[in-house]
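ok posting inputs for the zinc ion job
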Amino acid sequence: MTPVSDPSSFSTVSKCATKHLNLIYHVDFDKRVLKGKVALTLEVLEDKFSSLFRSLSKGSPLEITLPFELSRGQHVIVEIEYETSPSATALQWLTPTQTVGKKHPYLFSQCQATHCRSMIPCQDSPSVKHTYYAQVSVPKELVALMSALHDGQVPDPSDSSRVIYRFRQPVPMPSYLIAIVVGAVESRKIGPRSRVWSEKENVDEAAFEFSETETMLKTAESLAGPYVWGQYDLLVMPPSFPYGGMENPCLTFVTPTVLAGDKSLAGVIAHEISHSWTGNLVTNRNWEHFWLNEGHTVYIERMIARCMESEHLRQFKGIGGWKELQESVNQFGANNVLTNLVPNLHEVDTDEAFSSVPYEKGFALLYHLEELLGGPEVFMGFVKSYIQLFAYGTVTTEEWKNYLFTYFKDKVDILNKVDWNAWMHTPGMAPVKPKYDTTMADACTALCQRWVKAKEEDLASFTEEDVKKLNSPQLIEFMALLLQEEPLPLSHVKKMQEVYQLNSVKNAEVRFRWLRICVRAHWEEAVPLALKMATEQGRMKFTRPLFKEVYNFSKYSDKALNTFKENRGALHPVTAMLVAKDLKING
Ligand code: BES
Ligand code: ZN
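and the output
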């Protein structure tokens, strides 16, 4: 592995590398701190090594000077006793009222991309992989879970009201995959290697929603090779969880907004399962190469859809993905370097750089290569071989590309015709628009165009039958298409509610787009509904655009601002920071 510097870490990753991390935590809900001790086992990579840099709070490095010099190949264990800040950006501390059960407090972490340093003094670079053990002391009535295997639990010898949970992660992994949850959670077995965890109120609902987990795991193994992490559990998070899903090893975190009641949003699980290979086993060397994690993961996720459902579904998802890419490019601006597949992240906050670009420009590139090189089976063969070669390691875009040329050594002339610079280092849309099959999308496009073209006198022709012909993904796509058009006249939107009854739809992906359509049409009744959705759940994909949409309806800008300010203290720290920026608060 060539050591490269990490623009998102203060650590000198070329001087030393963490091999193992041993964590001891005492979880204090009153003070909202983790009191703890970490022992880092470091391998020295350079002679005359005596000082290491770590960053604890996000902005400031912690320098440790050793009382002796070490040489290359030696190991040292550094022990640090510390307490986290109540405002640590990796952590959200929830009061009982912010949980479903309303009785117990709850704590969860979200370390990706650069927040692990706020909870553990560590190198916090994805270029460094290590194993970890942990012991977590929590109040007896609560359960602790981590991104690792369970290693038993014992009464806390120093406090009879507490229990200590033990964890063991024997597979080396980057620090951004360390995760912890403490709350009143229960579990149900949903497969030979899977349980689903959540507060007891929705654990049965969750077990139903995610019943296809083992089939997805088996399908992924048939595509990408053996699953090396042992257990694959799911944890349904409190509503404020900022992402759709997070691929924490052995324990995927998932937003409750995927509980649609009909398994129609379980694609998120296929995505997080796929990270078990691309992301967790083969990891981006630094966050500039994030597309290697997400692009390949989306590619495998859609291959799972192809195997379990149909090629038509994969094609349909490709169409939806291209639209997501267009939205991101419009949002950032087509000249913004953050729309490059491989962006420069010096002086850039990874949370602010986050978008659909690495996912969908990444997927578009892989799909384009698939078409050039011989189709899905052939290209999946390459992806599997890439995984085998780089398993347990980290990779840069350059290394990925070199291996692509090696694997397809007989097709180098084809690869040389690809405009690599345009794909990787140029802002805006992908240079080639894939031609996807439109079998599943046609009905969505047709209905969207009927609404867009409809005159006042045509409105009577719409009936509830229009949407009965669409399945759930198609209804979402129909709404997404409408959002790409000019705002509909208010009369149209009101008619749409009358015939399709969309205000009472629970499916979060449908509801989110519907409420945006309504606010854009300046339907005042939708404003409180949009703000309700923006605050009752905190998935940033929904919350940020909903706040922005209301804010852009000038009559309600202040309403959006005030709603945000009233709720700010209870929001996830990263969500609060980004919504504040979106609403132009504090410069
Ligand atoms: N690893 C990501 C979530 C993430 C990325 C968190 C960067 C923090 C920083 C996860 O696998 C993901 O992509 N989630 C998506 C799911 C979707 C693509 C199915 C999400 O949250 O929407
Ligand atoms: Zn992902």
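notes: The chain has a mean pLDDT of 97. The chain has three domains: 1-88+115-174, 284-425, 442-582.
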